[in-house]
Structure formats: C-alpha cells, structure tokens
Amino acid sequence: MSRGTEARPSEARARLLSTATRIFYAEGIHSVGVDRIIAEAQVTRATLYRHFAGKEELVLAYLDQADRGIRAQTEAARASADSPAERVRAVSRSIAEGIRSPGFRGCAFLNAVAEYPDPAHPVHRAVLAHRQWFLETVTELLEQAGHTPADAAGRHLVMLRDGAMAAGCLFDPDLVCETFLQGVEGILQAHPAATPPRHTTA
Amino acid sequence: MSRGTEARPSEARARLLSTATRIFYAEGIHSVGVDRIIAEAQVTRATLYRHFAGKEELVLAYLDQADRGIRAQTEAARASADSPAERVRAVSRSIAEGIRSPGFRGCAFLNAVAEYPDPAHPVHRAVLAHRQWFLETVTELLEQAGHTPADAAGRHLVMLRDGAMAAGCLFDPDLVCETFLQGVEGILQAHPAATPPRHTTA
DNA sequence: TGAGTGCGAGACCGAACGTTCTCCCTCATG
DNA sequence: CATGAGGGAGAACGTTCGGTCTCGCACTCA
Predict the structure, then answer these.
(1) What is the pLDDT of residue A199?
(2) Largest Cα–Cα separation, chain B
(3) Chain A contact for B127 (CB, 8 A cutoff)
(4) Residue-number span of the structural domain to which B182 is assigned
(5) With a threshold of 0.70, does the pTM exceed it?
(6) What is the CATH number of the domain that holds A63?
(7) A53-62 confidence digits (pLDDT tens)
(8) Is residue A25 part of a domain?
C-alpha cells in the first residue's frame, strides 16, 4: 500500500536529478551531454529515458527544483523577520549569502535563458514564470513596507538582484554583496513610506 | 597598392564574421553549429577555416567586434556631454537605447559567459576583460563627477547595468530602461560630490 | 604568360549528440 | 510458483558536431 500504484520516489531518479542539477548549474546545459549525466549519476541510459521523456524534460525538472529551492529560501527569510522593511532586508541577505557561498555560478535561470533565447521554448517560459513570481514577491514586500510606488521599487530591487547574481561569479563576491546590500538600503531609504506623495532628498 | 601584401579585408571573412555575430547573439553559441554559419554566410567550410583557426576563434572575433562597438558607442556618448555628471547620463542613455532597440537579446558578454563558465577559457577571459574596462570607465566618469567613493558608485552603476541588460529581453524594455535611468539618477544623487569640487546643475 | 592565391564545391573523418533497442536480473504481489 | 514491472548493462540507431581534405575556377601581379 505504501508504495502501490502511485509514483515512487525512485532512488535512481533522484540521483539523476541531483546530478543533472549539479552539472547543468556548474557547466551549462547545451555543453553537457546525457552521457556525462548518466555516467556521474551511475545510471544507465534506459533509466534516464524511463523517468524523463528526454533531455529537455530533465532541464525543466532541474529548473523546477531550483525554483522550489529559491521559493523555500525566500519564504524562510521572509518569515524570519518581523517588520516589513526587515523582511526585505532578510530576503536580500539570503540572496547575498547565496552569492557568497562556494560554487556560486550565477542565477540558474539567467544562465539557462541565455541558452534558450526562444520565448516560446518551455525552458524560456519556465524562467519567465520564476522571474514573474520573484518580481511579484518583492513588490508585495515593498508595498507592505509602505513604499509608495511599490512597482518601481520592486523592479529596482529585481534589477539590482539580477546584476548582483550576474556579477557574483565574475567579480569579488564580497564586494558584489556589499554593493548589492547597500543598493537595497538605498531603495528602502529612497521610497520612504511617504505621507505626502513623492520627493525625498531635495 | 591599396590591397597589397598586407592583410586584406576579405569580403568572405567579413560576411562570416557578421553572420556569426548575428547568429551567436540571437541564438547563443553552443547551440549553433558551423554549418549554420557557413550556410547563411554563403561561404564554404574551407573558407571558414582559412580565416579562423576554429569555431572558438570565431567566437573570440565575435566578442572582440562587440567589444569594439561598445567602446566606440561609450566613447561617443562620453564625448557628447560637457559636464562629468552629464557624461554619466549620456553613457547610461546610450545603454538604454541599446536595450530598447529591436533585436536586443541581452548583454553579449553576459550571455557568452553563461556558456563558458570555466575562468581559464579564452572566451571567459575576454568577457572579464571587457567588464573590467567598463567598470574602470564608469568609475573614472563618476570620479570626475566628484563622487567620493567612486569605486562603490562605479560598482553600483555596473550592477544596475547588468541587471538592466539581463532583464531587458525578459521584461518590457521601456519599463526596464525607465527603472535603470532612475537608478542612475539615484546613484548620482546618493554620492553627492563631497563639499566643494565639481557640481554642475545644482 | 604563368605562378600565386582566394574562394567555391563537396567528399570525408572520428567523435559526440540524443534516442531507442534488446537482454537479463531482482523483487513484490497474484 | 507465476508474473510483470523497475532497473542495470550495453549495443546500436541516425544525425550532427567541429575539422581536414582535394580539386578546380577566377583573378591579380610580376
């Protein structure tokens, strides 16, 4: 009953997916073949195609797993703070932690979309969906913090995040994180829960 | 005399490089083969290998051409403005123009480095060299504008540019440009020319 | 006029690509 | 015990990859 007719976890499938995740993230997608993946996952070719319709589905599963991980990490950071502004800082800090962590190789989604420029491709659309979720999430956070044009602030924060993720593996990660977190502070201070409409420093 | 013993422009080579540039930028590098390129350039395989040692050299030539183009565009923008702060704005506006232009597909260098994660690879190093030049250029511009921590401001501006370039082909380009240019204004106002030195528009 | 050369045309190479196939073993359930 | 599904092992599929090869034409310049 416990593992009856419904989908099994399948030890082999888990090895496959975690190996694909590791290699795709570290080396890119088009440049690694299924041979590499099945070899390092210690799985045969037939097993791969028993669990995934093809390489593309493996890529989609990789991105889906990354998406779940980031959502969970973001939710944890969000829940760790009390005030709205602190929630923005906590999410930003969790991003900075990722950039600083060893093996960081940029944003899995930005890297993937660079290899799948066709907007109609499922992989490209998965990236867009993830980004849409993130934009909405941070915009909501900033809105709760009382920022008047929450849309603009959200786009600003996402843009800063994208830049930090892109540069994090090309420059000194510590400097990138410092710049990013200072930029986040700038956003938080630039749109300060206004009583009158806009206008801040001058 | 005009086309003597020195290197010729070689009509075929020019077609090869412009075709490679167009296809690599629009569709990525690993996912297009030399067959595609020689077919669309209307050149035979032998001609390709007569001018380039291999695909990798073609990729390097593509990035070199992109680098020259961006440097020229930046220099033109820089020269078009009088005050230091206006030079920063002019360079930023030229970046925004690129993002808004049809066929924009992100930063050629960020896209390329996503496919060449190995820091020792010539393509990866070409990307780092280009980025180093850009960071130094904008830092110098901001320093001339009298911004006290010019390094931090330069890194901030580069981070914003990276984010804008990454998102420019994934979101509404107009909104991306608006966010980017507002962010640049924020940088210019956040590090306000210490006490005395420059200062132009007040 | 004849040597040199840039280029087109296309055959060809070995390797790697993603994918499908058969065969055999294991093991839980009828 | 019989059965059938899941998985390992690996041969093999056809295609495409990047790269090399020969050959012949058209052109330029000494």
Answers:
(1) 38
(2) 64
(3) yes
(4) 60-190
(5) yes
(6) 1.10.357.10
(7) 999 999 999 9
(8) yes
